[in-house]
Amino acid sequence: xxxxxxxxxxxxxxxxxxxxxxxxxxxxxxxxxxxxxxxxxxxxxxxxxxxxxxxxxxxxxxxxxxxxxxxxxxxxxxxxxxxxxxxxxxxxxxxxxxxxxxxxxxxxxxxxxxxxxxxxxxxxxxxxxxxxxxxxxxxxxxxxxxxxxxxxxxxxxxxxxxxxxxxxxxxxxxxxxxxxxxxxxxxxxxxxxxxxxxxxxxxxxxxxxxxxxxxxxxxxxxxxxxxxxxxxxxxxxxxxxxxxxxxxxxxxxxxxxxxxxxxxxxxxxxxxxxxxxxxxxxxxxxxxxxxxxxxxxxxxxxxxxxxxxxxxxxxxxxxxxxxxxxxxxxxxxxxxxxxxxxxxxxxxxxxxxxxxxxxxxx
Amino acid sequence: xxxxxxxxxxxxxxxxxxxxxxxxxxxxxxxxxxxxxxxxxxxxxxxxxxxxxxxxxxxxxxxxxxxxxxxxxxxxxxxxxxxxxxxxxxxxxxxxxxxxxxxxxxxxxxxxxxxxxxxxxxxxxxxxxxxxxxxxxxxxxxxxxxxxxxxxxxxxxxxxxxxxxxxxxxxxxxxxxxxxxxxxxxxxxxxxxxxxxxxxxxxxxxxxxxxxxxxxxxxxxxxxxxxxxxxxxxxxxxxxxxxxxxxxxxxxxxxxxxxxxxxxxxxxxxxxxxxxxxxxxxxxxxxxxxxxxxxxxxxxxxxxxxxxxxxxxxxxxxxxxxxxxxxxxxxxxxxxxxxxxxxxxxxxxxxxxxxxxxxxxx
Lengths: 362, 362
What we know:
The structure is a homodimer of 362-residue chains.
Chain A: E1 2-3, H1 5-19, H2 23-38, H3 49-57, E2 68-73, E3 76-80, H4 86-104, E4 106-114, H5 120-129, E5 133-138, E6 160-164, E7 172-176, H6 183-191, E8 201-202, E9 208-209, H7 212-218, H8 232-248, H9 258-262, E10 270-277, H10 287-300, H11 316-328, E11 330-331, H12 334-346, H13 352-359
Parallel strand pairs in A: 3-4
Antiparallel strand pairs in A: 1-11, 2-3, 4-10, 5-6, 5-10, 6-7, 8-9
């Protein structure tokens, strides 16, 4: 089913309102979620609603969360997300980092006591849209990455996002899980009844599996690199770095031992990390974005290995998706549409999707 | 041949003195180089001397370099390395970052007009040894990484290093090239007459090669991840991120287009980036290192997939190598020993290795 961003916006707003989220946080949360859907990052937008619904039902999510600064210096801050979803806390924290980096050149803001915050790239891009370099990382609620030579998952898929502004080009934005593939890709493959490529996850016998359900159930994902010989210690190192910056630094939980330390009922206590850096403190006016354009242009000019398959430039696939989905709408799997309607019914929010479906309007 | 760190120290000092390097910079340079050899990072220590010798002969290296701060704020600085080797400038810049992060919580220092600086992990570790989180990245003198779907190299092997202090454990230190394998591994395999694993580099026909010489000559290295399906866009994105932080931000050259823009005789103008972050601005005293110990202990406790092959913990292999090589000495390939002696003779420095070899003393 193809749904407009506007309809999804109203449907999500209705659900979050019924859940008791504060209005200012609803606006931020929906904006971050729809950024993912519009950008083709289908694993991190509305497809997360069933998971949010579930953890709310389990009592692990505070809807009327208070986001506040608990420690700070002129260029750092520690933010407590109050146990709510991470999106609004993330927007608040990256805005703080951006404001503070403007004057002194660099700032870092950590967040603790949070939850899933959607696509990390949104936050890194916030900095780039203001002319700054942005970095955003987050820990995860569940350990999924098996460290090199190990037999059990010890880190979440711990994504890292980096963005830098350009001039005539859109900003350079990269955003990826430090596992070979993001867990959301497993969910999407499972929902679509597709296999996953060999090398993403292991089965119970320790051999690679192509069944996304096995990947989701066992959570034995390979770190980026796949095997030791092909550099899995690097992906595993990145996953650890993200955990240290996002959780260890800010007082978030280490997911692999959370239940063992704090019990099955414990909150996820996810942590995030945001950094903003002002190129104006390093280069003369305009030099940085001119060099960014030079690099991006040079990448676009590389002859493709296969004709018709141009060199991937980070940020381009998302930009292309946005242009298309803003006008044509967002494809949403039928099973997910049903889940969203069910979630709306369960909290007595209006079912706007069903309404649209019955009248056939876009 | 096994050589003591002390002998290598004296031999390198003698050569750098003959080359006209300033004494304070010699001490830093040799310390950083021997850190690599003692830590088992054989690709980044004395094995780089032939390359340094060559670029000096080509007039691309300033030996009496002046390292100076050209711009600064209380938490950022831009350092000009004066066209010298990068080691001393790197030590200077990371010291600046460390001093400045102590008070306000975070600091970043960029370096331009530099050259190869050895193992990035040395600088990240400098921060960890003072109780801070450290990040160090550097651009490279030659493009080697082929972007996803592309046909020619556009980024150097652009390494990234990250270190964090622990309590009863040694610091967590990761340091790796953003290609599947570091270029130094190709050189070592070539010197040892060994093949490289399939997946590290492509041959002229676009298919994988196992010949390290082909990898070194053509420089068609895969980004970490190897193929698109296994996440090569992630390794390529990291390589770009490192280039942006190290070169674009600080006025270093974009290696892929340097000759085309500035001519074959142009200096490499390598850039570095250093960041230091003070956990004391985020957590209560001792909490951060206690959590680091918890994470490291949990990783060590993971059951290995293969008995006898424990889970890799970043920093451990280097620590083990150091313990062994401090007492037993550093293995140096015979061909490299001959090259070092030749380099000493060429600049009229004493040949201390040959002298040792003739008397048979350690």
